[in-house]
Design brief:
alpha/beta; Rossmann fold; six-stranded mixed beta sheet; four-stranded antiparallel beta sheet; 9 helices; 12 strands
């Protein structure tokens, strides 16, 4: 059984917004006549693992894309380490320490592990690629995450889905992020690969990396998460500390929760 540790420290500091590494206030976003998000508040603390859940089209990925700059919000404020931000693209949010790993991993299958980890920013020695440094650094990142990949020279297309995801996470970690967002990370993984991913998330937590896991699999969130937030039709309908709730309660909020009856961790 994976043990994420105690959530008590989160509850103790729940009333202090100065502890937030990310704070999103009253976020709204529409695509034409379709309202994707309405007046959503979201926060995240360093080293916290937050499960973001809800049915399809609840607005989970849209909210995170508004955070990273992949989408431009229509209204609301985003603060990173208490500083107001207005990212126009994911490159800008990456510079502030925010990484998002998408479901398709965005890897180049015909390249090896080391090349993928440093894709687009291969280390150079003068005018030439410093291959030795690239593979040494790639190996170091994998070791830090305790990822079991046979060789940094192995083609990514030959790896299993779970190991490809590990490479995607290693690439994100190579940027030394403060926040990692994982979009449906266990959707297509075997039981063993899922277990390895959850262990990797706990390893990142030890390094004080905050994480958001967007998932329909509540079991995974309850294994490693500190807090869970529920979106429904683009609105926040509930928030709970994992230590103080059950999967059954969260399922009930997903099905019948309303913004009017939303209850956050400050009032639990």
């Amino acid at each position: 059984m994976i043990n994420p540790g105690s959530s008590s420290s989160i509850a103790e500091t729940a009333n202090s917004s100065s502890d937030y590494i990310i704070e999103m206030r009253s976020i709204s976003k529409a695509f034409g006549a379709v309202r994707a998000l309405h007046n959503v508040n979201f926060n995240l603390r360093p080293g916290e693992i937050l499960g973001l859940v809800g049915d399809n089209s609840a607005g989970k990925s849209t909210l995170m894309k508004c955070l990273t700059g992949a989408y431009q919000r229509d209204d609301g404020d985003v603060l990173v380490e208490n500083q107001s931000t207005d990212f126009s693209n994911p490159h800008e949010s990456r510079d502030r320490g925010i990484e998002m790993i998408y479901q398709d991993f965005a890897l180049c299958g015909n390249m090896d592990v080391g090349q993928n980890i440093f894709l687009g920013r291969w280390p150079r020695k003068g005018f030439f690629l410093n291959r030795r440094k690239m593979y040494e650094d790639a190996y170091a990142v994998l070791q830090r995450l305790k990822v079991d990949v046979n060789s940094v020279y192995q083609k990514v297309e030959s790896l299993s889905g779970g190991r490809q995801q590990s490479v995607a996470i290693a690439r994100a970690i190579s940027f030394e992020p403060k926040v990692v967002i994982l979009d449906e990370p266990t959707a297509n993984l075997s039981v063993m690969a899922t277990e390895r991913l959850l262990e990797t998330m706990l390893e990142l937590k030890k390094h004080n990396v905050a994480q958001v896991i967007i998932s329909h699999r509540l079991t995974d969130i309850f294994q490693v998460g500190d807090r869970v937030m529920v979106l429904k039709r683009g609105e926040n309908v509930g928030e709970r500390l994992v230590a103080d709730t059950t999967e059954h309660e969260i399922l009930g909020i997903i099905v019948s929760g309303t913004p009017e009856n939303a209850q956050n961790v400050e009032t639990v």
